[in-house]
């Protein structure tokens, strides 16, 4: 996942034109052991279990975790048989890595409360005819500043979080624990990233790990690997700023589904309509509409119609055709031509999106962590 713009490149101002604005933009990521992400992963695991048996399943699953408790709530209408929620929840928690029986939250010991009912008939009748499952606005975004067509700050923040998890699971650092947060601040000249200025890593650790060994791992190993060509010796690196992070995950903080919507998307660089993804089947346009918006924005950048593109789509509950579709190129392309291209080439009705991207499959556990965008293998990234 290397960036297309080299760290030593800048954008020269046109003679006589104002110099490009210099600014710093920051994005954050979290690991799969973060309490909110634990909830997202459980919710998407339940969604996939239903879709594996019933591609038409209607799933809206919310999860709450705290200490030794997991609460499942929401609405599910599905022909799937014998869905073992207990096994799914404990399996997901085990995969994440919360298996230490000395902690309040661990896979074998959690108490699971199931508060699931069927989808409202009033919503069902609108979705059955191909309409959107709810009203709302969704945004898709793409930029040519990286090969992944993602903003650099969130791309690097995700890379840090993912590498921490990989190192933990491979036992490269025995003291690593599942919970972690990362943050990357990038300096821009105009729309062009030119340097990473600050990296913040807060990672959960065993009680006997020292701040010195944690910092040495982050500063001399993790950050250079994650940043690659963007690494420089003068980057400010902050590690566990409070001095200790031995108690983490749901044993320390409550987690709820859908609270990491900016982490899941563009790190704040692109706008967000407010709808979360995890636990929702593709008839929910919060998920499928946002995925398709990203797909369309990518096509605009790849086609050379813009260097940065944002697509907004809005729906009314029960209606198939969107209320509006808008394209913004931020002055990097012809917005009128780009919007005409989008209207001619893409159908935004929920069933059309689902068919084009093949969304009625159990693929959603693979989307939960380290961003729903900018990673290979996802249909909206094709």
SSE layout:
Layout: E1 22-30, H1 35-53, E2 58-66, E3 69-77, H2 85-96, E4 111-117, H3 121-128, E5 136-143, H4 152-169, E6 176-189, E7 192-205, H5 211-227, E8 236-239, E9 255-256, H6 261-264, H7 285-302, E10 308-315, E11 324-328, H8 335-345, H9 350-357
Parallel strand pairs: 3-4, 7-8
Antiparallel strand pairs: 1-6, 2-3, 2-9, 5-10, 6-7, 10-11
Helix pairs in contact: 1-2, 4-5, 7-9
Largest sheet: 4 strands, mixed
The portion of residues assigned to helices is 25-40%
Distance between the termini: 15 Å
Radius of gyration: 22 Å
How many DSSP helices?
A: 9
Report the mean per-residue pLDDT as an integer: 93
State the strand order across the main sheet: 1-6-7-8
- Low-pLDDT segments: 1-14
> By helix and strand content, what is the structural category?
alpha+beta
Return the CATH class of the domain at 136-144 and 282-381.
Alpha Beta
Within the CATH hierarchy, at the fold level, what is the topology of the domain at 136-144 and 282-381? GMP Synthetase, Chain A, domain 3
Reading the helices and strands in chain order gives EHEEHEHEHEEHEEHHEEHH
Annotated CATH architecture of the domain at 136-144 and 282-381? 2-Layer Sandwich
Question: In percent terms, what proportion of residues is strand?
Answer: 15-25%
What shape does the CA trace take?
Answer: flat
Number-wise, the strands total: 11
């Amino acid at each position: 996942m290397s960036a297309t713009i080299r760290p030593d490149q800048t954008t020269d101002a046109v003679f006589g034109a104002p110099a490009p604005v210099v600014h710093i933009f920051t994005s954050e990521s979290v690991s799969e052991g973060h309490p909110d992400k634990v909830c997202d992963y459980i919710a998407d695991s339940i969604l996939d279990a239903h879709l594996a048996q019933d591609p038409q399943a209607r799933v809206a699953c919310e999860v709450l975790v705290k200490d030794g408790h997991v609460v499942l709530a929401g609405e599910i209408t599905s022909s799937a048989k014998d869905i073992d929620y207990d096994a799914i929840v404990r399996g997901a928690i085990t995969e994440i890595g919360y298996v230490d029986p000395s902690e309040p939250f661990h896979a074998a010991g959690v108490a699971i409360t199931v508060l699931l009912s069927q989808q409202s008939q009033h919503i069902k009748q609108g979705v059955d005819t191909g309409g959107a499952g709810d009203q709302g606005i969704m945004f898709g975004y793409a930029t040519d500043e990286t090969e992944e067509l993602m903003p650099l700050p969130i791309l690097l923040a995700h890379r840090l979080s993912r590498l921490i998890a990989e190192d933990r699971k491979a036992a490269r650092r025995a003291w690593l624990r599942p919970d972690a947060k990362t943050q990357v601040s990038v300096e821009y000249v105009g729309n062009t990233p030119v340097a990473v200025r600050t990296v913040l890593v807060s990672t959960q650790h065993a009680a006997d790990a020292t701040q010195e060994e944690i910092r040495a791992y982050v500063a001399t190993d993790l950050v250079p690997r994650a940043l690659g060509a963007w690494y420089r010796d003068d980057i400010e690196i902050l590690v566990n700023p409070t001095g200790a992070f031995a108690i983490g995950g749901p044993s320390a903080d409550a987690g709820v589904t859908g609270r990491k919507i900016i982490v899941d998307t563009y790190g704040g660089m692109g706008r967000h309509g407010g709808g979360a993804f995890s636990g929702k089947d593709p008839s929910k346009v919060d998920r499928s509409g946002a995925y398709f918006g990203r797909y369309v924005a990518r096509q605009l950048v790849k086609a050379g119609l813009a260097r940065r593109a944002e697509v907004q789509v809005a729906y009314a509950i029960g209606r198939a055709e969107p209320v509006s579709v808008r394209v913004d190129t931020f002055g990097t392309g012809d917005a009128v031509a780009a919007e005409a291209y989008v209207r001619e080439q893409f159908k935004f009705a929920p069933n059309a999106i689902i068919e084009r991207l093949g969304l009625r499959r159990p693929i959603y556990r693979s989307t939960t962590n380290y961003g729903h965008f900018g990673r290979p293998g996802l249909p909206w990234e094709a």
